Amino acid sequence: MRRSPHALAGALVLGLTLTACGGGGGTAGQSSGAPSAASDTTLLIWADQMRSATLKPFAEAFAEENGIKAEIVVVAQNQQQTFTTASQAGKGPDVIVGAHDWIGNLVQNGLIDPVQMTEEQLSGYVDVARKAVTYGGQVYGVPYAVESLALFRNTDLAPDAPESFEELVATGKKLKAAGKVEEIVGYPVSQQNGQSGDTYHLYPLYTSAGAHLFGTTPTGDPDPADLGVGTEESVAAFERIAELGEKGEGALKRSFTSDNAAAAFNEGKTAFMVAGPWRLADARKAGVEYDVTPVPGFKDAGPARPFVGVQSFFVASKGRNKALAQEFVTGTLASPEVARALFDAEPRMPALKQALEYAAGKDPDVAKFQAAAENGTPLPAIPQMVAIWVPFNTLIHSAVKGEPVPAAVAAAAEAIAGQLKQ
Amino acid sequence: MSTQRTRTGEGRGLPRPGDTGASRRGEAGTRGGSGETGERVRPQGSPGGPPARGRRARAVPARGWPGSPGAIAARFLVLGLIVAVALWAAAPLVSAGNWTGTAIVAVVTAAGMHVYLTPRRLPAKYLFPTTLLVLAFQVFPVVHTMSLALTNIGDGHLGTKQEAITAIETSSVRREPGSAEYRLTVAERDGELVFLLADGGRAYAGTAGGLRPLEGARLGPGGRVAAAEGYAVLTAAQASARGAEVTELAVPVEGGAIRSQGLSRAYRGRAELSYEAGCDCVRGPDPGAAAGSGAGTEAGAGQEGREKVWRADEKQGRFVAADGTALPQGWKVDVGLANLTAALTNPQVNAHFLGVFGWNVVYAVSVVALTAALGIALALALHHPRMRAVRVYRTLVVLPYAMPAFAMLLVWRDMFNTDFGLVNRMLGLEVDWLGEPLTARLSVLLVQLWLGFPYMFLIATGALQTIPSEYMEAAQVDGATAWHRFRKVTLPLLMLALAPLLVSSFAFNFNNFNGVFLVTAGGPFPADNPAVGATDLLITYTFRLAFGQQGAQYGLASAMSVYVYLIVAVLSIVSFRRTRVFQEVDR
């Protein structure tokens, strides 16, 4: 009879409908059931692939010590958004691994708790890491790795580190004229989608010319009331960037993304690349003779200040085991052992001084990246930063493309200010 | 007559007994005897047919219960499954006290039972699941979106006011500078939670009542209190089970309170901000003076002890001070039609609406026209009787359809790269494909043509099979040229099947977020106006507006999608009307 398959479909639909309806209400019941069975306590940790493999033994040891269970869930994509949605639905983790620039948004959404470390503990971290996880005078995360952009140089092609960006361009042009390379520099002007500029990568040059994004409040946070885009310095900075662009020197091109810049560098098609420590592994694998130095600034200008990103552990406000999570984060995860293990898994500069010594002894590139981060500023964690990205990305593209700079800067400034006002 | 035949043909092309004509079809089969329909029903009488088919055919008259015990068992199984699913869904709802949800489950289950347990109500048996599907996947999302559009939900306004207050107070707790750190043991006495604190060999017991010295405590490894008379030390799991109490307990001491930091440490800290229900406000020291919540940078720095008051603003859903600064943590409030009107009146939102809308229509129409033209042309070519190796060609043509569209879009994006892309390299060009408005628009159209034509090809191939060759022969005998035969016979019959699909394809491409966002991200953006790109569709424009700039603004995004929904609905209804497909099917 034809009925059975339809009844089946009906049952399926019923199930779908009911689970859809039940989604919202079901969580309260689950959480209220948890305390009755203490042995069921599970510390839930969200991390990316690399971190989850490294943290697993530590989480298991912690669980065993405390007579609980620990579970690490790999969240590979869209972590902040997923965390926000899941936490709001009561299904979020207790601990999440992420970047420090999430802090502002997570705090305004009430999703992470401060981490109360002693001054002694805090002094064990490098300054920039401590500064990055401090928001509104409060520490919100336990930092473990510091990363910033640096200049990769093919030492076979260019034995000497350039003093300024102009010198870099001159060397690159000479090599190109000699037919040794195809591109002057692998500078990721565009994001992966190719169609918007890359604020993160262009920021060092922008700051070298004396411009800034936000001022600083007395508490040390970026100040959205003091917008640097639209100032004379910012116009001057983009004029200099435009000189290097497609209608100028031809060093900066919109066709460069982080990926194809790395490919060009690893194949020896360019002698220079601006990239972060995450490109080290590929460069080594490609067998390029390379050196890492800070991103050079413009000639006769200030130093280039790259954004510094600090990878951190956060305690979720809406986790089910907040006390345990605090214990795990400030106890286990803040330990040098974890920092070392994380470094062994991926060569990123550790935030903990003790682990930094270990790492520097093991890998000479760590000290080079440390030097590159020296002039850097933490990526602003304030939620207002989201107003910057789109207009600033567009501004970068306009300038590199060779469109009139003052008008483009003014338009970007207007767009950002309009968003900030809302 | 022609419609009659086409309909039967359609039935064969799409073997989906989804309409209410199940019994009618059986009737027609027996009455008509021969023809395509008859063939389908023939196993009815053949005793050698497979058992499943036999059962199926016997039950078609649908009078009384079918005799086969297998069928009855299957029906009981399925009904049992429905009940099981219902109970499974109801259990958490009941335990959470969600009586509305429980009632919905009960009503739906009862309706399902009623429809499927009785042999009558044949139409309802088909309507029931489809209605549920429509409710669950069409009506509910639309209603939900519309209800979100009436709130300010978004970053900073996700939860309730109580959640915001908790977050404000929790994040304002500051460690006293230079204060000692205690080794903590969580214990209980008569069910009340107690902090057993150790500091430099001395032990204390702390409760919400205060801190007092603890006699007779034994210190364990790490200097923590391992046992104390009269107190039951909790294991980590037990303490964690009472985690909320542990994190909330503040032992009042002079100049602050001792709070737990995890389960083995405690510190002296002070909550700087506190909510007062009386004034519905939050009080605390001025953050401009010392370290604060980062919201304001008011003058008055250095004035220790200066107090600031943030009053609850139920319109904005946040605590606002007299100087206009607000605490970052807000809550969700109803804003009425503000989002819907903002979409119309806010110059930042609506200034570019017409331009984007225009391109959006051009994009959707062009994609449909191009894919349909190419698909039909290819289908006709392969339909030609003298065509060889049709299968190979068909496989090749359908290939783009079989590949994951997401990956292909990204591949196309990289192929359009000026310096490294395949397109420029192969053709030896220097075209800035995605950087100039015109070429960028051409590019997204080209990509969508490549992705979309196999679908049209498949449909057209299917529809071509149903056109009887007698028509062609008749036309040929009458002396019609190939063009005339196509124009006057093939195309009208094709369009009959294709028209509704063209309309739905239009609706799909009108909202083709991936097709644009993954290739150009809406760009290129003019230098003087970073808000709107040359290839922006309404949906990508809305997306950036809602999620790109001021963080996630779900309320505003919902309002915008309500408008997009209305536009698509109106356009679709108009075009359905124009193609008169509904009437054709209904007749």
Short synopsis of the structure:
The complex is a heterodimer of chains A (422) and B (587). With 422 residues, chain A is α+β, with helices and mostly antiparallel strands.
Structure commentary:
- Chain B: Its main location: membrane.
- Chain B: This is Maltose/maltodextrin transport system permease protein.
- Chain B: Keywords: Cell membrane, Membrane, Sugar transport, Transmembrane, Transmembrane helix, Transport.
- Chain B: One of its GO terms (biological process) is maltodextrin transmembrane transport.
- Chain B: Belongs to the binding-protein-dependent transport system permease family. MalFG subfamily.
- Chain A: This is Sugar ABC transporter substrate-binding protein.
- The complex is a heterodimer of chains A (422) and B (587).
- Chain A has 17 helices and 15 strands.
- Chain A is 48% helix and 16% strand.
- In chain A, the strands form four sheets. In chain A, strands 1, 2, 3, 4, 7, 13, 14 and 15 form an eight-stranded mixed β-sheet that branches. A three-stranded antiparallel β-sheet of chain A has the order 11-8-12. A two-stranded antiparallel ribbon of chain A has the order 5-6.
- In chain A, helix 9 packs across helix 16.
- In chain A, strand 1, helix 2 (49-66) and strand 2 (69-74) form a beta-alpha-beta unit.
- Chain A is globular and about 65 Å long.
- Chain A has 422 residues and is of the alpha+beta class.
- Chain A has two domains: 5-147 and 309-378, 3-Layer(aba) Sandwich (D-Maltodextrin-Binding Protein, domain 2); 150-305 and 388-421, 3-Layer(aba) Sandwich (D-Maltodextrin-Binding Protein, domain 2).
- Chain B is of the alpha+beta class and 587 residues long.
- Chain B has three domains: 70-149, Up-down Bundle (Methane Monooxygenase Hydroxylase, Chain G, domain 1), CATH 1.20.58; 161-330, no CATH class; 344-586, Orthogonal Bundle (MetI-like fold).
- Chain B has helices spanning 2-13, 22-32, 35-41, 51-58, 69-95, 99-117, 122-149, 161-171, 236-241, 243-248, 338-345, 347-350, 353-383, 390-402, 405-415, 422-427, 437-465, 469-477, 482-510, 513-517, 538-549, 554-579, 581-586, and strands spanning 173-175, 181-189, 192-199, 202-207, 210-213, 217-219, 225-228, 232-233, 250-253, 256-261, 265-271, 274-276, 281-285, 307-313, 318-321, 326-330.
- In chain B, the strands form three sheets. In chain B, strands 1, 2, 3, 4, 5, 8, 9, 10 and 11 form a nine-stranded antiparallel β-sheet that branches. Chain B has a five-stranded antiparallel β-sheet with strand order 12-13-14-15-16, with helices on one face.
- In chain B, strand 15 and strand 16 (326-330) form a beta hairpin.
- In chain B, helix 2 (22-32) crosses helix 3.
- The longest helix of chain B is centred in the middle third of the chain and has 31 residues, at 353-383.
- The radius of gyration of chain B is 35 Å and the shape is elongated.
- Mean pLDDT of chain B is 77; it is low at 1-63 and 290-304.
- The interface between A and B is large, with 110 and 127 residues.
